[in-house]
Amino acid sequence: MTIEEIENEIVEEFEMFEDWMQRYEHLIDLGKSMPMIEEKNKTEDKLIKGCQSQVWMHSELKDGKIVYTADSDAIITKGMVALMIRVLSNHTPQEIIDSKLDFIEKIGLTKHLSPTRSNGLLSMIKQMKLDAIAYAAKS
Amino acid sequence: MTIEEIENEIVEEFEMFEDWMQRYEHLIDLGKSMPMIEEKNKTEDKLIKGCQSQVWMHSELKDGKIVYTADSDAIITKGMVALMIRVLSNHTPQEIIDSKLDFIEKIGLTKHLSPTRSNGLLSMIKQMKLDAIAYAAKS
Amino acid sequence: MTELKTSTSLLLNIEAIRADFPILSRKVNGKQLIYFDNGATAQKPVSVIDAIDTYYKNQNANIHRGVHTLSQEITVAYENARTTIQKHLNAKHAHEIVFTSGTTASVNLLASSFAKKNIQAGDEIIISAMEHHSNILPWQQLCEEKDALLKIIPISKEGELIIDEFEKLISNKTKIIAVTHISNTLGTINPIKKIIAIAHSKNIPVMIDGAQAVPHTAVDVQELDCDFYVFSGHKLFGPTGVGVLYGKEKWLNELPPYQVGGGTIKTVTFEKTEYADLPLKFEAGTPHIAGGIGLAAAIDYINTIGLEKIAAYEHELLLYATDALQKIDGLKIIGTAKNKVSVISFIVEGLHPFDIGTLLDQMGIAVRTGHHCTQPLMQFYGVPGTIRASFAFYNTKQEIDEFVKTLMRVINMLK
Amino acid sequence: MTELKTSTSLLLNIEAIRADFPILSRKVNGKQLIYFDNGATAQKPVSVIDAIDTYYKNQNANIHRGVHTLSQEITVAYENARTTIQKHLNAKHAHEIVFTSGTTASVNLLASSFAKKNIQAGDEIIISAMEHHSNILPWQQLCEEKDALLKIIPISKEGELIIDEFEKLISNKTKIIAVTHISNTLGTINPIKKIIAIAHSKNIPVMIDGAQAVPHTAVDVQELDCDFYVFSGHKLFGPTGVGVLYGKEKWLNELPPYQVGGGTIKTVTFEKTEYADLPLKFEAGTPHIAGGIGLAAAIDYINTIGLEKIAAYEHELLLYATDALQKIDGLKIIGTAKNKVSVISFIVEGLHPFDIGTLLDQMGIAVRTGHHCTQPLMQFYGVPGTIRASFAFYNTKQEIDEFVKTLMRVINMLK
Ligand SMILES: Cc1ncc(COP(=O)(O)O)c(C=O)c1O
Ligand SMILES: Cc1ncc(COP(=O)(O)O)c(C=O)c1O
Asked: Does C108 share its domain with C140?
């Protein structure tokens, strides 16, 4: 599936829920079942510090595609990371760089995107894209 | 006349005016005809500094009564000084110390009495009373 | 406890009080707002909002230097606001009340001004382990600049200052002690009168951070005999951007000005400047006039209710909530001092405060999560942060019931 | 001139504009208020007052650190306010906009922070002879502390900076230049672009005091290329207690923090503190949230009118009033620069400004009298003070007529 197709899938998924409480339940489930970063990769340089919670994000290039793994100390944050990984992982650096990620707006996650927002979803996306740029430059 | 009698006289005088513009005219006239301080007494230590205008105030004891003379660079301030001198001059230190000066309130001059009021009518009265206390202590 | 509950609640007409706070009728995420973040900032009664409104609509002018009526009227009003604060703190003189932009600004002013003459290399400053960053960083920074030493009064696991240890910290190099009256994270009410007495027996001045105290308790600076007392307007149901530094006249006269500019001077030439009398010496520039007026309105408001009644009612809320929270499995209250105000920090085993806070918010309940600007305290307790519910006198037991019920649901979701 | 009058006036619907400012319908001493003290502080449009009202009634929460909805919403609104200011000044980044409590605080912040690393004994700082005390004292104080030298750009009798002399003042010891964009006493618009270019040709940074400029003219900090630009909200039709320090990113990153406390840090231990990124590094403590929101509302308001139109209309008022005042016997205008905004200072031979101001006030006319916090400038002109009438875009020619008529009556009374 293309990034956009996955995005649409997620938007449909989220539209099924009646309220945000259910959406958060879903995020929590996603968080619990996320592809976890290996302990050895949980290093300081993989750490994205938010004011409230932190994220470790690791990427590898496999067959020209980036595979992300991550962890967070907060489960909701982890759920958001999981969403991002589901959308971006297993795509080429260029596809990731070009992604618009409109689904964030569509599913109403934008309120977590404010520049000062504690969990730093924005810094997370920035880091994922930066990794992609780095791989693109190398290839 | 006692201090209180002079005060009442002034209150009556001011009640005759229809508006504050006329009162100010009267103050200006009083200022112009005030018993002036001698130049040699216009020294730094006789100076009461306001933010906007300044007053020189000199006092002498004559036959057990204090005689004030003064000057100011602003004519309205001078008028107010003149009023104060008319009330307090030629009275004994004790009478001056005891004076309540209710007329200030009655003729509506209180708005010039605010702690930060630029012309410092308050500092003026304070200085006049301090002089009286000094003379009372000496006698 | 049920009996106590009814009896004290009757002291306050909470329904009427709540009607004074427009924001309390707001909905958040489709739910009725339950505002338990009062420690961060308090809500404003309509009398405060109206005072600000009236100022801008009818009275606005610059103060102190104008001869015209508007300027004179508002100068008097602003100075009356100062007097309201003076009386509220029972300060000896109105000019002992310096307006600042908040607690943080007050501490910075004091630290900077105090250091200029009174701190040399090797000198010592004492603060406590439960201070807010705003009462740590200014002292830490000046210690770095002056090569002085910052000493920390330790606390017990319950979150109480260890007074014996405090006495041992004092040396003949101690130049000032800065402690919080009430901890914003733990709710602990510190024995500041005792601390001040001990310090004064060794001639050391004391600054009290009252940011969390003034909304909950009456403060009498003369009875406490503190040298400095600081707080913010916005936590006292007043406007943002205004705060107070109370200082004893003797100290304020002695200290050099901090910020300088319009209003702080008697005369200026390019060679030399003569500074104004108190409090203007410390109030450079056009002040936050609406802030001063609004803060006085806030003080008037709480005084019509009465701080004793407020304290009694809030204590009841504290007991009620503590009782209910303690029954929740895996929940641990951080800060269990004997003397507390209505601030409860807690963690839930295995769960992240951020997750809990986010889900509570979905249900309209505003609590604070994180380090509450007391990172060293978090390090002491070995937690990344806590969830903090802080109650004001407009909160109710029904709200606490709703909060506890929702919290249990949230914990279940996360487990 | 009559023709110009009608044509430009038509640009603005003054009646409608005046209706936006509630205070303008106020009576003072039984007379309709004529407010000509805009240089001291400007009046507030109802949109600003409403923004503040709405904030307190519906949005109040502490920002930046809360996970709950109220806190997030107002954080976004506050950061949007920063962006509004950024766009208004055409700054490159929003984080180049630092909120302060006013111009005076901005200058103090800059002087103190700049001095820490960049000023040594023997260094030189240049200001001008027409600065406001708020742009004199902070530099004077730091020169005393650091044993540096304060140099003064002289002015001509007309009240214009003498640029040739300025160039001569610059040496390889000059570390910073701080000049006002527009003189609050004289109305002079200084050639700051030229000053900045000259300074930059020698690698010296320049701070511009824009307190009197932002209400009258559009400012483009990138086009000016100034390193720092400061102003107050209350003179820009916004709330009291809020101001701005604009600084180029490169400079703000380089400068150490000034006030420290909650919000300024990434991590704190008692041993060491790591400071936050821009602009938070300079914004210690709970900010004046209502102030930031209100200031943005003020900027939105003037932008709906348009600063170009405002400047054109005010220029017309300036010419009209200057013309009428010049005809009065014994009246002397202080400040006759070619480039001026609508600020007129004058004296009347043999009469004290205070007397004139007091009597004008009796007739409902608010002007400022005194030294306008520019004592060195008064010394230069050899006067104890002036009467200053400063016009905003809500003032009218009818008001000027009334003012001139009353002034003549007042002069007669005093003579
Ligand atoms: C040119 C100038 N600079 C600085 C200031 C100080 O501004 P504030 O009092 O708002 O800090 C003023 C205000 O009078 C001014 O006119
Ligand atoms: C104990 C304590 N001190 C200081 C502060 C700082 O107050 P402000 O942010 O109003 O400057 C706070 C506020 O969080 C506090 O709780």
From this structure: yes
Mean predicted confidence (pLDDT) in A41-56: 83
CA–CA separation, A106 vs A100, rounded Å?
12
Distance, CA of D65 to CA of B40 (rounded, Å): 67
Q: Does B47 touch chain D (CB under 8 A)?
A: no
Residues D84 and D126 in one domain: yes
Residue D373 sits in a domain whose CATH number is: 3.90.1150.10
Cα distance from D314 to chain B (closest Cα, Å)? 29
- Do residues D138 and C261 lie in contact, with contact meaning Cβ atoms separated by under 8 Å? yes
Note the pLDDT tens digit of each residue in D370-379: 999 999 999 9
- pLDDT band of D97, cuts 50, 70, 90: very high
CA distance A62 to chain D (A): 35
CA nearest ligand 2 atom 14, residue: C40
Q: What is the DSSP letter of C270?
A: S
Of ligand 1's listed atoms, the one at least distance from the Cα of D101 is: 11
Question: Inter-chain contact B115–C266, Cβ cutoff 8 Å?
Answer: no
The answer to whether position C42 is within a domain reads no
Could you give the CA distance from residue C65 to residue C161 in angstroms, rounded to a whole number?
A: 47
Active site residue C226: no
From D99, D108, D134, D181, give the residue whose CB has the most ligand 1 atoms within 8 Å, as the site to mutate: D134
For residues C12, C16, C19, C21, the Cα torsion angle rounded to the nearest 10 degrees is: -30
What distance in Å separates the CA atoms of residue B102 and residue A90, rounded to the nearest whole number? Answer: 90
C234 contacts on D by Cβ (under 8 Å): 62, 286
User: Of D323, D319, D346, D324, which is closest to residue D334 (Cα–Cα)?
Assistant: D346
Domain count for chain D, please give it.
2
Range of the domain at A85: 3-138
Per-residue pLDDT band for D2 (boundaries 50, 70, 90) equals very low
Last residue of a domain, one of C288, C303, C318: C303
Q: Assess whether the C-beta atom of C285 lies below 6 angstroms from ligand 1.
A: yes
Give me the pLDDT at residue D3, please: 43
Q: CA separation (Å) from C182 to C187, C209, C333, C388?
A: 6, 8, 17, 15
Distance CA A81, CA A57 (A): 9
- pTM for the model stands at 0.95
Q: Are residues C391 and C291 in the same domain?
A: no
Ligand 1 touching residue D185 (CB < 6 A): no
CATH classification of the domain holding B111? 3.90.1010.10
